[in-house]
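hey so i finaly got around to running the thing on SET domain-containing protein from Brassica napus. pasting the sequence first so u can double check i didnt mess up the copy paste, my clipboard has been acting weird all day
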Amino acid sequence: MAAAAVTSSEEGAKVQVFVDWLQVNGAELRGCTINSSPKGFGIFADAQGSSDVSDDDVLVVVPLELAITPMRVLQEPLLGPECRSMFEQGHVDDRFLIILFLTFERLRPLSSWKPYLDMLPTRFGNPLWFSDDDFLELKGTNLYDATLLQKKKLLSLYHDKVEPLLNKLLLLDGVSESNVSFDHFLWANSVFWSRALNLPLPHSFVFPQNQEDVGACPSTPATDSHQKGKSLLSLLLFLCLIPVFKIQDQVPGATSVGSGDTVWVEGLVPGIDFCNHDLKPVATWEVDGTGSVSKVPFSMYLLSVAQNPIPNKEITISYGDKGNEELLYLYGFVIENNPDDYLMVHYPVEAIPSIPFSDSKGQLLEAQKAQLRCLLPKSLLDHGFFPQTTSKVRESDEKEKAARSCNFSWSGQRKIPTYVNKLVFPEDFMTGLRTIAMQEDEIYKFSAMLEELVESRPDEQPSETEVRMAVWEACGDSGALQLLVDLLNAKMMKLEENSGSEEQDAGLLEEACVLESHDQPRELEEEEGKRMISRNKWSSVVYRRGQKQLTRLFLKEAEHALHLALSSDHC
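ok and heres what it spat out for the 3d tokens, dont ask me to read them lol
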């Protein structure tokens, strides 16, 4: 109890220093405060309401000058020139600039950013921070291979660029004995990917007309004593391993940036970045270029979407419609029964050279702009042969079906399949699989049809749509669907080979009691026969169970579609 009280007291003092730092730098908390939460720190409505709450439900306002963006990094006296040189030579991207900045400032004993940096987590729940035992729980999943590759890339980047540069800069900053380590760089990488936002900044802020305009040269934040201090790493696009993850986009409807063009810039906004994610958020964030809403020009503000914030209730936002693969990889948490979960399926690009007629098929794939990787959101199942729930058909689904129907018309030699409106797999992906699966006679049939078209229009090349239609008419869907069934079976086999069945995962979660930290009393292990597992292991099991469930359900859809396609071929 005494240790807990000391920890609580230390956290309270740390929060107060940070809040004072925010206020010194022009930020405002209106009717809310920052407190500890199960996820670290969060923003909470005041205990008994507050007269500070504005009539327009603005809860937090942070000047854009306080945001950590690539522009700020390039203006830093010590770091800026080095970063500008690397950036201009194309050695790094803008994300790396921010990550390098965070690493550097954390190592500076007298950093003016210390009140903010002290509030950030020291460890994270993403797989880069897993113990060896916990990491093995991910074996067989996309994240296992992706994390191994990312760590290798980060280590190479650290030793090649980060470590020598930081040692040089810290020496110039007066730090004679620096303690630079890979863990510092890994920490900064995780801070960026778990907290960065995609900010719609006013053009006039990013590109001011004169040097006196706001944003021209972001000032170093003031410390509590009002004194000034001295003054990109791309998420790996693991080819066909994981989807391209995005930084938190602006919440839909939040576009109050004032007049003029908008420039999208990734960055961290101290204060607002303490908002945690929820499927039912109670707030959204916006950028105010003119100050018409927040009363602070060139600011970002947190807006309540609840009529009356409940006292002491955490104020949450949405990070977007993200599946557990993305949530675990970027933010270090998962959501049980996540409605936005998805399955990534791909045909291995490295296998193409070994298939028959690989050169011709490669050209065909390019001509059709076909995809060999696709994301299958759980929501697609609602519109398939075996719907899980009854839900409203989305506009995007209707457009997909319309595009699919349009493609199924050529010379009338092959009938439009009766199952076309129940096929849940994206047409771009099906186009790729059809091309990969084409047999020799189907290639000749396709070539004859295209030759006939070219002869009738000697001055005009076949369009992408016409090439797609000819491929479909030549081979239909059965070859593509058989290939898809094989891919999904292989995916399920890989998942189960390393961690057992979906039912075994469900049983493990039912028996689990999550150990939140190594300091938690071990006597809880015997409570009601529960099995004590770490939070990281629990997250891994939730994620991989969801992948097995989706693989099973989409495999069922593919097998049924294959049966119908084969029946149609024999008619």
